[in-house]
Amino acid sequence: MHFATLASQFFIGLSRGMIFFIVSAGLTLIFGVLRITNFAHGSLYMLGAFMAFSVSTFFGQGPNGFWLALLVAPIAVMLISLVIERGLLRFIYNRDHLTQMLLTYSLVLITGDLVKIVWGTEFKSMNIPEILRGSLNLWGASLPLYNAFLLIIGPIVALGLWLFLSKTHLGKVCRATATDREMVDILGIDSTRVFAIVFALGGWLAGLGGALIAPTTTISMGMDANIIIYAFLIVVIGGLGNVWGALISSIIMGVGEAFGILFIPGIAIIIPYIIAGVLLIVRPSGLLKSVW
Amino acid sequence: MSTNKAYLVLGLAISGILILLAVPTIISQYYVYLLATVFTTALLATSLNLVLGYGGLLHLHHGVFFGVGAYTVAIVMTKTSWPFAVAVVLAPLVAALIAFVIGWFCVRLRGLYFGMLTLALGQLVWAIVYRWNALTNGDNGIHAIPVPEFLTSVNSVYYTTLMVLIVSLVILYLITKSPFGLTLLATRDNPVRSESVGINVKRHRLTAFVIAGFFAGIAGVLFVLVERSVAPSLLFWNKSAEILIMCLMGGLTVFMGPALGAGILVLLSMIVGLYTEYWLLVLGLLLLILVLFLPQGILGYLMESYGKAYERK
Hints:
heterodimer, A: two-stranded antiparallel sheet, 2 strands, globular, B: mainly alpha, 14 helices
């Protein structure tokens, strides 16, 4: 096994970890602040991918279409999330986990069939724009340019989230709501508005993840069921509600999966579950501190 | 009154069983087959509720034990020359063993973490079944599983599943009313206090988990009798979500709730399937209404209003 192969597989895993991070950061924020297990997060990710496809196709799959898709799809998903939060979720905040879970699962079922009705069942694909095609040479290791692009986007999103959560007033309110909602209410801040904002932000992140993955894969039904389990595991391994924990476990999952594909291609599919199982058994409360 | 109520329940149960015994003579073979599916699913949902409703544990991946039971029968019947009886005995035992291993890790966690670990380890089992081509045929599944001659007709499958369901439900019911079952309820309602009066909470939870896995394995055997084929999708997480919906629909707090939910869901999926291919959309809307307006489930709601009416008297 050449070092170059290892390195290139490492970077590919890392870039996949970035997608995992973007999706699961949204999920973990929702976990932390709203305390809701949002199964529909995977559906929002799928919607992001399908919408990116539609926007891109509308502009003839050209470069403009790609950049516009990256801009429009996440915002569209964000608006849908806002409707879901105001229209449904706010009625079940004081229910038990199972009820909340099944409500979001009903959205999974509904969205799945609606996507089938709107977009049909045939597989779809989206073009990578010219300037992101080809590959990069990193110390002898070849890395597709698009993966390098993801490696830039991921840290930008992480940085943006850090700035938002630690430097802005709203971000601080979000963190305070996650820690002690009652106290926030007593201080005269409308915490349900915070819930709506966080859920919309989470939806935007899921949509962004979907839009980013769209050019690298076939866009199809079932995308939601696969990503949501990964995202859940990442969020739990990282510590519920902890964005940085989600970043670390996303990288572990992405790189672990990539090396699994390299070394044991036949059974690579079981790697993420083994990682998750082992980490949950060794550190049941997550790698970093949970906000709960 | 409580003896009156007991007679009422007993009377309902007996007349229900008598009707079910007579049913295959009057309805078409397709519906007989469908009812056998209902019985299988009812047993599966009731076994989950021992952990979910009585144990109060967020068990998110019960379908795994069902799938393991079904796969055990399929593998024994197609890869070995062992008799059918061995397969039938082995299936629930293997399911219970897997439940023991998964449960052993899970019971150390609480709440959502418990649920997530059941999901992770359950998906691990799914991935193994999905990939272990030599043993499980991978994603093709195993088809045309041979079963003994006397179990090939639809009616014999119907009566077998019905009998197994009744016996299993009686045993599960007795378990919930046994000292073990009552202690389990105590660990659900107040784990800290239970622990402090000397109850080994983890052991009770693990025992419930293993019993539930055992009965899910029995349901898996019934599934093979009805369908004669298995596929890895049986062990995928959305199958387990369906079982959770059944439990919620019927009502977690009533013993027969999950069985009722299973019956409604299986029959409904068939009826809706006649008119539209968008069954999941209908199920989603139904689930939405259920969660928002009837969170205690159909039977739970009926029991509540019955209780209120009784109090007024």
